[in-house]
Amino acid sequence: MNPSAAEPRPARLAVGVVGAGRVGPALAASLQLAGHRPVAVSGVSDASLRRAAELLPGVPVVPPAQVMERADLVLLTVPDDALPGLVQGLAETGAVRPGQLLVHTSGRYGVGVLDPARRAGALPLALHPAMTFTGTSVDVQRLAGCSFGVTAPEELRLAAEALVIEMGGEPEWIAEAARPLYHAALALGANHLVTLVAQSMELLRQAGVTAPDRMLGPLLGAALDNALRSGDAALTGPVARGDAGTVAAHVAELRKHAPATVDGYLAMARTTADRALAHGLLKPELAEDLLGVLATGPATEGHPDSGGPEGDDDR
């Protein structure tokens, strides 16, 4: 049964997944809990097949064209760079059916990337869950209260909102032109956080801490909570205080024990110092010595940017 674009709540739909990565099976499982019916999934790798079997037991694994044939709502959950070619291929081969809801989950793209399918009669939606996925059943639980970056044609806004709410999420409307900036913001906060935490745990292990995760958990949880509540006012630590000597000691130790972390430490410290200065947290009289320490350059000799601060601005 094809949904009507005017329905505030989609009818029960046959759901298909093209690309059984970490996201698609979780969203399909969540839609199943809401009363929809997963009917087909495509996947090639062993990991994809395992995810499909765990999250969508009994749902047949078939080629993408057959997913399109069987489903009223198709989730296109492939990597961002693969999405335009996939959509073009589905449209050119006649796989798209008029009235079929076609949903991609890319943060980067809005509905424009679905234009080839839209011209073939598909109803395009961009529903990006602002969540990190593991590819396991825990992802379905995490969707409760998760924000979705939603972009949709005006006539499909109610249908998009209904689907997100049925998955337990909260719709946040993102303009088509703002999608790349929206996605960059999420990557900056979430993806880089993982890198920072992993580096921090490695350094703590080198320092002899036996359970770095247990040490960091309360600290990082409090820091995140404070940052979400207070923004830059939550800044603490030696950079915000202007403790140039402590920061210099940090840099010296990192050069000795973990040189690969120095560039990241310096870049984040410079940004922190700039924000602390702008918000009146770092006293200007303390900033000069601190910024001198932070201008010591990259960790690796012979780095192409080692000639001066101009190179740092390009990274």
TrEMBL record:
| Domain of life assignment | Bacteria
Residues annotated as domain Putative oxidoreductase/dehydrogenase Rossmann-like:
5-129
What the entry lists under InterPro entries is as follows: 6-PGluconate_DH-like_C_sf (IPR008927), DUF2520 (IPR018931), NAD(P)-bd_dom_sf (IPR036291), OxRdtase/DH_put_Rossmann_dom (IPR019665), TM1727-like_C_sf (IPR037108)
One Pfam short name: DUF2520
Stretch forming the signal peptide = none
Q: Which stretches does the entry tag as region Disordered?
A: 294-315
Domain DUF2520 residues, every copy: 146-271
Asked whether the keyword Transmembrane is assigned, the reply is: no
Q: What does the UniProt keyword field contain?
A: Ubiquinone
* Name under which the protein is recorded: NADH-ubiquinone oxidoreductase
Q: Which organism is it from?
A: Streptomyces kanasensis
